[in-house]
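I had to read the description of the data format several times before I understood it. For illustration, here is how one protein appears when written out as sequence plus structure tokens:
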Amino acid sequence: MEKLTILGCGSALPASGRHPTGQILEHNGKFLLIDCGEGTQSRMRENKISFDKISHIFISHLHGDHYFGLPGLISTMNLLGRTRDLHLFGPAGLIRILELQFELGKTFLSFSLKFTPVEKEEDILSLRGLKVQSIELNHRLKCFGFIFKEEKKTRRINGPVAKSVGVPHFFMDQLRLGEDYVDKDGNVIQNSVLTLEPKKSHTYAFCSDNRIQADFCNKVKGVSVLYHEATFLHQELKKAKKTFHSTAKEAALLAQEIKPDLLILGHYSARYRSVLPLLEEAKGIYKQTSAATYKDIYDFSKI
């Protein structure tokens, strides 16, 4: 995984400058869209994100602030002449909504929409170097989060040393996999001399709307980057419980238990003009916390 771009960090009610939930996760040249609130395609335009590069879309649940932008985005892809498959993961009812929308609008897609219903906790996708797992969240209707887990990366070539030894180009892949090199005179050069340690592999957990339960930490244990909703300040705990949401303090307490390298807050209530109080509440418990704002980019190589 290379980076995460925040396209929206607000909750159900509109709030100036925040926009509903939407994120782009980049991995090996593929763009994975996570949730698609209203206006997501406009946010993509503003951030110069190619529509055609979106290969997979993950929708957490059927509250509008998490998917109302999807019919428009797919329609735009169609208007732009997309031909390659689009893979969509989400609640079983999502495909019915889309099919009705396209049927009544007499829209005939120029590409195949490959839909996979997400109905339980399981491995749902395997890409080169990345696996995706669904985890059930605790909300007012069926809702799932997604864990994106990188496989262990290969070692990196120490270019100057490899060149000085005369390692041929065709042997570089073996070096990355940890093999020693034997030169033409039979001398063995240890792999540790010719390569560098691999870059860190990350596991990213996206947890949208979720009233945290006592055992939830077991589902996200071991993640290095945790995105978790923080709709309210803790003084609104009663409201959070009623709406099946979490507070910034609760998100931080979860992070304190699983110890990710970074906790990212989001899904703020429109009642808060500034996210600083939410960030301060969380950082008082877990210092490695960031409050997502529109256009933020998280570079995984720096986490």
Observations:
- The longest helix spans residues 94-104.
- The chain has ten helices and 18 strands.
- The first strand starts at residue 3 and ends at 8.
- The CA atoms of residues 41 and 73 lie 6 Å apart.
